[in-house]
Protein 1
Amino acid sequence: MNQSGLELNKIVAAVLLAGIIALVASFASDGLYQGGSGHGEKDAKRGYTIAGAESADSAGSAAPAAEEKPVDILPLLAGADLTAGEAQVKKCAACHTFDKGGKNGVGPNQWNLIGSDFGHVAGYAYSDAIKALHGSKKWGFQELSDFLAGPKKYLPGNKMSFAGIKNPQDRANLIAYLNTLSDKPLPLPK
């Protein structure tokens, strides 16, 4: 066999290999998209809901979002579950630390948060929205609940990219637990 025949074989082999790779990738992506449920079953809803995103109707126009009223968190704090709150704090642990004297993460350390000023950690690079409230506003139970329900809605311009915790009892549990992470926890409502 001559040199040009070997080159032709290499080209054909490369094309066949590329086709096989594309076929395997197609099967793999179909399996990932369908969730590997098998038998052609499909989930009722795929993907993630983004808090604050407007849904579009079949005509393509955006439906107005229902206005959410702030929930009075104080009655819910009276029956808050600290164990459930400790579980809720795991949502925050990717960005925040919670131990006394702990380092800042993407977000500031949360020790002594409740009852402290907005922008309570010296040396942390807060957004201008938080800095503007330093010294004039404190993280009380209600303020923290309203913030955790939707950080961008409560305080536009802040850097927190967290979508929020919609369930008021989950927020109350988390707030009650965060209150324990302090040198002087505030008394919870009875």
Protein 2
Amino acid sequence: MGSNPWEAENSKETEAVKPNESKTKEWRLIEKTMMGLQKEQRAARRWGIFFKLLTFGYLFVVLGIYLFADSFSPDMDEGGEHTAVVQVNGVIADGEDASADNIIGALRRAFGDEDSKAVILRINSPGGSPVQSGYVYDEVKRLRALHPEKKVYAVILDIGASGAYYIAASADEIYADKASLVGSIGVVSSGFGFVDLMEKVGVERRNLISGENKTFLDPFSPLQDKDRAFWQTVLDTTHNQFIDQVRKGRGDRLKENDQLFSGLVWTGEQSLDLGLIDGLGSSSYVARDIVGAEKMVDYTPKGSPLEQLIDRLGVTFGKTIATQLGLNNSVQLR
């Protein structure tokens, strides 16, 4: 039986169409897959943005609470009869938190408030500039003369040494914990000399001066005996000024001891026996039992909110790094 030419031609056309349909289905499948991926990516981006905004919102809330927590402390609300508190924290130096400008400004506000019964100098400092300490000492005495009804109490926390004790000596009475470090009534000046190192390295020192003492205490030149002797007179004079102010502030309460002004530090318990302090107790103890006004109001300047935020973030970051590196091995009672 013969074949039909028309059927043969239709068969060929059908075979030619099948591959094209197959390709079309593949492209549609690919297109659907790509569109599905795009939808998933868009959804993932939306959720990512949402969670990022949620995280930032959470951080801002936490930082806000952390930053302004002190403002809502119930025992530091202003108004009504209270004991004024002025903080002396850290190194006493110009430009630092414990600068004379900051402390004196706080003292003037504290004395000027009619509701403050007395002023507590809350000290936690290793000391610092004798000039800055002297400014504060003199201002306390001046304000006490202007407001004889208001006493000043110094309360030493962990440490009140050197310039910090200089300031404490201006108070009517000084209190500390039995384990506080108190004293260090002395003056120190330290530095380095690099003369031998320069010779080993082969560095030549070129220093042109007008005035024979302009290279005084130059670390790159040998220390001359006359320079050492002169600088010692400066240190001795400053030390005697320090001793004189402590004697004026403490008076007959000081117990004579050969080591009292040698630069040594003592515990609070030892300091009580030496007459360096008047009793053992905290700020709250002084406010409650000595002053008779338990509520305390802190007059210490805290800076702008932005400065507080930056400082606290820096401290937190530093503490975290120190903890991770195992560098926070301070001496502690265990």
Protein 3
Amino acid sequence: MKKVSKNVKKQILNISFVLLLVGITLAVLLTSNKELNFKDIFSFIKNSNPWLLAASVLCMIAGIIFEGLCIHIISRKFGHKGRLVSSIAYSSADIYYSAITPSATGGQPASIYYMVKDGMGAGTASFTLLVNAIAYTAALLILSALAFIIRPAMFAGFEPMVKFFVIFGMAVQTLLLGLFIACMFCNRAVLKLGNGIITLLTKMHIVKNPDKWRKKVSDEVEKYRNCARTIRKHRLLFLNAILLTLAQRVVRVIISCCICIAAEPDTSFWDVFVIQSFVIVGYTFLPVPGGVGAFEYLYLHTYRLIYNSDAFIFSAMMVMRTVSYYFSIIVSGIMTLSYHVYLMRRKKPQTAALPLQSVNSRRQRRIRMKKKAQRRARLNGSGK
């Protein structure tokens, strides 16, 4: 029997980890809401507007495409003349591996792998995803600001724990964006601070190899400094990246709007839009694939502001989760696998051409040697 490769083992472990989290979450939800069952969910789907449910799936796919568009315009500014289809494949790899790896750590490395395989330089690939990550953080903050502007009083109606999640999520995203900007425009100060922290941790015997960590900090700061240079050169680049990333986040929010309105046509679009925006900001900062557990908690405790029925909220949440997370894993996984197969097949004709050329050259060599032998034989015959 063939041994299972390390990569396949990692995939199995990651998917098993996600399934375990999902199982625990479902068990907690079903035990704490004993009056709820899957019959409610099937009834919810059956009585919903099928066109709006289909629209929610299209919004999920649109989210993948918008991220692909963002990667496409950034990579082109960095000099890579790739195709839009390829950029959408990079986006699907990012979404798929982020969804199945702890802390969403596998997304960017997977995207870089396919970018480099496609002929993009490693530096260009890392800069492209760096700008995309900064735009993503900025877009989340803009989305939360829009939620406060559209329904300023709604946040006050949340439970204390929900408020904590939302405020903490916004604080984390603000700190991240501040760090990104500091690395780009105040790199010397960040480098000095980073080296100071490493020195302190070394004295506390927490860091054992300070030179290694200093080099890591220096490399990261230099990467952001180079990124800032490119942004200054192409001033509209960052704005375009933010707008496309914001569009991606908005269509993800609209998934919930479509699902809720499909089942309850009298529902206010903006009420759902605002609540779902707060939910996204509240669980995104957690180092768990898809925010499993936190998403369910926030959804159940925020939508009570507009719906009285727990059965309705539970059913809407399950349908929303299926479309935005599980369908997203399936679709992005299929797209990633398809592109992987395409890249492998694209290389085969090139490798297949080499043996054919060598066979032809050997055949021609044999013919030339045979002709030379015949000439020698004739000359020897005439000499005798």
Protein 4
Amino acid sequence: MAVNEETLMWVEKYRPKNLNEVVDLKDVVESLKAFMRNPKTMPHLLFAGIPGTGKTTLALCIARELFGPNWKTFTLELNASDERGIDTVRERVKDFSRYSRAAFGNVPFALIILDESDQMTGPAQTALRRIMETSSRTSRFILICNYSGKIIEPIQSRCAVFRFSKLDPKAMVEHLKFIAEKENVTLSPEAAERIVDYAEGDLRHAINALQTAAVYKDGVIDEKTVQNVVGEVSGVKVQVMINKALSGSFIDARKKMYELMGEYGFSGSEIVRQMQRELFKMSFVTPEQKAELSNIIGEYDYRLTQGANSDIQLSALLAQFGKVGKTQGENQ
């Protein structure tokens, strides 16, 4: 029997089909439900926010709520980062939007979803602004983007803007537990929290990490498994390295750095990223030190992105940490 590939991806398998299934986003969902009660009053919509917070999912839920099983017939989906030129706007969007859907029940318009619309060129956005204005009787637009600032003001003023922030960690944990139960996977509380912490509010990222972790140990997911999957070392070990550097034990800190890189096989950028995260969990480091150390981390992270040698840069980073710790000790 042929296996539907989509069912193998938990992100798609457990994507909400209606607004009631959406994780978190209570305020946004309630506002959209108000529009659904009288679709004729629905304006153009602009969804803006970080990836993995449900923007595209909500747009598809709206399409299903409006048109039911035939939603694909009355919905045009475009990824504006791939088809972002003025020709696409003038041809595909304009052609689709000009046809009246007045005969379809209580919804007198079609729906056009433009994902990653902040990648559209300036001329394309200008053309889109005019189309949104002239086709409002026959079409509604849902624009999806990461940065609303990249959308021209005339378009924003024609839309009801919804801003998406990071999802609530507790809601994410509960959703991961729900998926694990459905898939007969044993997920420890510590592992669920580690996945959510790693995903940083991106539910799509969290679900993908969960599915990857489920491959190990016959469906039993513990914190160690998550560490191997997400590519992060033990937070305690990173904190030990930072503490040694701050206390002036540069050689010991450098040795610990090589142990972490050798044991886990991580790149310099990955080590730096986790140093930044663990730094703010260390209660004995003062706020002033954290600010100064964050500035140092940012400098060396930039150097690594420019292709500098990771061993040399990480060693220099630890040396800078030592200077900060020494200065703090002298001041005390």
